[in-house]
């Protein structure tokens, strides 16, 4: 096939298939130079592809440091995974007595788990985080154990939770994570449609109180208003952790996750990371020229026919992919007549780093060549 390098050919007569492996490089021009980013994050930064987890940019991304209220990403994920999100209950009066940012809970307030998730993710309510912990596990300590078990399950190797809210603890650096771990946690959280819906809202109307009244809460995440395609996720600040921001943005179907920890210019740095990331990717059509594929007719070895793809596929590709995309063509060693124009006679599988990313059918093309 023109412009493609054939790696190897395998004939499997017993399976009536042969496979041709091909690879190609995608040429995508980047408009932003990584060296010009100058990210200010003192405790680490990272940018990843939200679908694949591939790292696009990193700076000290494995440095262990406090992460403030970005902790609530884990608390919210656990809350959403419990189910019964819209069943009202009375919040624990002791749990909600906590300093710092608040959604305004008071003793006797009755609201739902979904309401509390909004209260955590938008105004960063520490009272909401504690209310969730008490409801799910019966106590803050037991819920923290649950958080750390989930961290281990997700492979967050350098993360340890001490509170559901992210408030600093008296123990030196016991409540900590890394930019890489927070990105991986967010990747998992954004697989949950309820999480994506909640963290993408600029504001929300909730009804609670005694007596219940309608009240509005606003999201602290300025990127939702200031950056095209921003769709989450969570802000954070304490004196020890500094300004922390975990954010997500999506353009043309490509979603990226950025994390900056202890960054005095977190808004601009996150915008710059996204612009850098989106500049490195473009929507590319996977190879669809199969004009060199010739298939045999049974009993007539001098007679052949050609194929064409049933459709084309596109993916977001970067220059760093180099030759990591391969395809495998599957057809029978011969075909019995009659064969009609458009009959499905095989398929093509596309792989990225040995992971199947798509497949299409091959159809008979009986037009003259």
Task: Set out the fold topology.
Blueprint (H helix, E strand, L loop, with lengths): L4 E8 L4 E8 L20 E5 L5 E5 L12 H10 L7 E2 L19 E2 L1 H9 L4 H12 L2 H14 L25 H11 L3 H7 L3 E6 L4 E6 L4 H4 L3 E9 L3 E10 L2 E7 L5 H14 L1 E5 L8 E4 L2 E10 L4 E5 L6 E7 L12 E9 L2 E11 L4
Helix pairs in contact: 1-2, 1-3, 2-3, 3-4
Mean pLDDT: 88
Tally of separate helices: 8
Structural class of the helix and strand makeup?
Answer: alpha+beta
Task: Give the CATH H-level superfamily of the largest domain.
Answer: DD-peptidase/beta-lactamase superfamily
Distance between the termini: 15 Å
Helix and strand run: EEEEHEEHHHHHEEHEEEHEEEEEEE
Regarding CATH, which class of the largest domain? Alpha Beta
Radius of gyration: 26 Å
- The CATH architecture of the largest domain would be 3-Layer(aba) Sandwich
Low-confidence stretches: 1-30
Helix content: 10-25%
Structure summary, number of beta strands: 18
Shape: elongated
Classify the beta-strand content into a percent band. 25-35%
CATH topology of the largest domain: Beta-lactamase
Q: What's the story with the biggest beta sheet?
A: 7 strands, antiparallel
Number of discrete domains: 2
The largest beta-sheet arranges its strands as 1-2-16-17-18-14-13
What does this structure look like?
With 369 residues, the protein is an alpha+beta fold. The chain folds into two domains: 5-27 and 285-365, Sandwich (Peptidoglycan synthesis regulatory factor (PBP3), Domain 2), CATH 2.60.410; 41-264, Beta-lactamase (3-Layer(aba) Sandwich). It has eight helices and 18 strands. It has helices spanning 72-81, 113-121, 126-137, 140-153, 179-189, 193-199, 223-226, 266-279, and strands at residues 5-12, 17-24, 45-49, 55-59, 89-90, 110-111, 203-208, 213-218, 230-238, 242-251, 254-260, 281-285, 294-297, 300-309, 314-318, 325-331, 344-352, 355-365. The strands form five sheets. Strands 1-2-16-17-18-14-13 form a seven-stranded antiparallel sheet, with no helix packed on it. Strand 17 (344-352) and strand 18 (355-365) form a beta hairpin. The protein is elongated. The two termini are 15 Å apart. The model is unreliable at 1-30 (pLDDT under 50).
